[in-house]
Amino acid sequence: MLIEGRKQSRISGRHLPDPEQEYAALYKILMDFGYICFMKTRMLIVFLCAVLSLGAQPNADSSRLRALYGETETFDAAFAQIKRIGTDAPYLTVTAADGTEFNSEVLSDKVVLVHFWFLTCGGCLIENPLLNKVADSLKWNNNFQMLAFANNSQEELEHFLDRDSLYFGNRWAMIKRHPELKFPILADPDEVVFNQFNSWSYPGNILIDRNGKIRKVIYRHELDMTDEEFLDYLLAQIRELL
User: Fold this and answer.
1) Residue 182: left (phi > 0), alpha (psi -120 to 50), or beta?
2) What pLDDT does 7 receive?
3) pLDDT class for 201, splitting at 50, 70, 90?
4) What residue numbers bound the domain in which 138 lies?
5) 8 Å CB contact between 131 and 183
6) Does the predicted model carry a pTM greater than 0.90?
7) Residue 71 and residue 103 share a domain
8) pLDDT value of position 103
9) How far, in Å, CA of 1 to CA of 81, rounded?
10) pLDDT value of residue 19
11) Neighbours of 171 (CB within 10 A)
12) Same domain for 58 and 120?
């Protein structure tokens, strides 16, 4: 009887597993596994979509540009520049006409609007007042910078800033129509920076994101927009990257 009692005591004192706890633990394991699979699948889908969009973008741009320019050298130049979208922007070390220095380290983590123009450019006379409005709209945003590279010498830009009509002679009749510009202007007389971006026409605009990648190539003449529509479009493209 004593031995039997001891056996009974040992059996009754043993901890038996709770089925509900086992089910709960198994459910948690399955849920965790399912979540991991879901996240991996989601990341794969995002990656595939990005790859497909990169593959589709050149085709869409090719069709758009071919419709605009036909089978011409202009089409070849425009398409070559569009293919730079998504690539690293060129490294910059430049000095503005007012002496302010810029380089890619200073511009890191900023959205940069690179504008190409020149003093006697008719289209630039129309576009620069709109860029002044962009500068005004974003002047308090430290994550944005505009740089306007002119196909003019440093000397010419300095005289332009001084509004020196005698220096420009007959050209001043056109140059004086530019408003006082509210963004840095930089000399690019030999089109070094212009060519680094594969640019091909004036005026032109390139948007660089905060990771230093070229994200947009924008030519006003390719867009059927009023001044206000173009301003709104340009601001929207910039704010999307901020």
Assistant:
1) alpha
2) 45
3) very high
4) 87-241
5) yes
6) no
7) no
8) 96
9) 97
10) 66
11) 13
12) no
